[in-house]
């Protein structure tokens, strides 16, 4: 009875509320799943940012032009590469977005229709942002791991092992965040679909 | 009158068909836009694949270990880099997907509801695929353009100018394809939303 009241408050014509009852139950189930996935998304994106931010590693490396027994400390950190800087910006933004949408997800029962639409629209944009950041960081990290003989780009992961472990974990976390966003977007769309059945 | 018949055939209860009339008009407008964007998506993804496939360039370059006046022909082509191979696979798949969905888009009036849902669900997946491919190829291409002094990866675009122009154009086309897919996904979602107003 309470749920019927809420539906009526959300400007649904009273004559439709009886028809929508099974849909409302399905909607509640999807909304709980939506909330859980958004909390996971927050965890994944914040972890990805933290793991990449703490990737700095300093090693003694030989310098070309000097004798090979003379080694100089050189650092590898994420802001050596524009791809990793973009990655940090994208994943931080996703973390912020996931906080906002988690809070909005709690209030989804109150004015569900418009929030579901906003979720479905913005989730797609963030799928694009997270996927492109994952691709860019992954593409550069792969060169770091394997190098590229054709253009004589040497691999660096044999020297900067900790750095590469952090970058790899961070890319894996953002891949997970991207998959979560795809599912979240699908859930929002599917809930909208359920309403018109 | 004809559109009302089609709606009734698509298992919509007869009592709702009158209510859905303005929504049906809006749906027809969005469907036309959907079709045009899908044709554009096909053009963009096929162009991106063709432009990258034709990027091969052979130049005479000095080889380390030999005297600098001795130059050897070296080719740059997209399958030197795993990121570009992934890009080709992803954009080819998107081209195939856009052919299928363009054909399905023409028949959208017949059984609109389920096709709209499929479009909305799969478009999101392809947003992820195209965005990650664009990110990966863009990230590697940027190293080719500017190099990275921190890890001594030399830029190659000063030598392989035609190759880099092709790669750059191809990445720009796939970025365009990604934006198209975001809009397509939003249109599908928004059309679903219009149905429940």
TrEMBL record, chains A, B:
The chain crosses the membrane at residues 35-54, 83-109, 116-145, 171-193. It is found in: Cell membrane. It holds the Pfam family CASP_dom. Its main location: membrane. InterPro entries: CASP/CASPL, CASP_dom, CASPL. GO terms for cellular component: plasma membrane. Belongs to the Casparian strip membrane proteins (CASP) family. Homodimer and heterodimers. This is CASP-like protein. It comes from Hibiscus trionum (Flower of an hour).
């Amino acid at each position: 009875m309470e749920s019927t009241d809420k539906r009526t408050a959300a400007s649904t014509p009273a004559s439709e509320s009886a028809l929508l009852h099974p849909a409302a139950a399905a909607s509640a189930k999807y909304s709980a799943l939506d909330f859980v996935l958004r909390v996971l998304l927050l965890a994944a994106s914040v972890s990805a940012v933290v793991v990449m931010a703490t990737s700095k590693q300093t090693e003694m490396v030989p310098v070309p032009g000097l004798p090979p027994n003379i080694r100089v400390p050189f650092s590898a950190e994420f802001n050596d590469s524009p791809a990793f800087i973009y990655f940090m910006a994208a994943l931080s933004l996703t973390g912020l977005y996931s906080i906002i949408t988690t809070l909005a997800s709690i209030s989804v029962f109150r004015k569900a229709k418009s929030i579901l639409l906003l979720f479905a629209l913005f989730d797609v944009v963030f799928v694009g942002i997270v996927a492109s950041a994952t691709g860019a960081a992954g593409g550069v990290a792969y060169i770091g791991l394997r190098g590229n003989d054709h253009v004589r780009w040497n691999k660096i992961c044999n020297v900067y092992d900790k750095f590469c472990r952090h970058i790899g974990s961070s890319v894996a976390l953002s891949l997970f965040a991207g998959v979560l966003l795809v599912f979240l977007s699908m859930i929002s769309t599917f809930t909208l679909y359920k309403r018109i059945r």
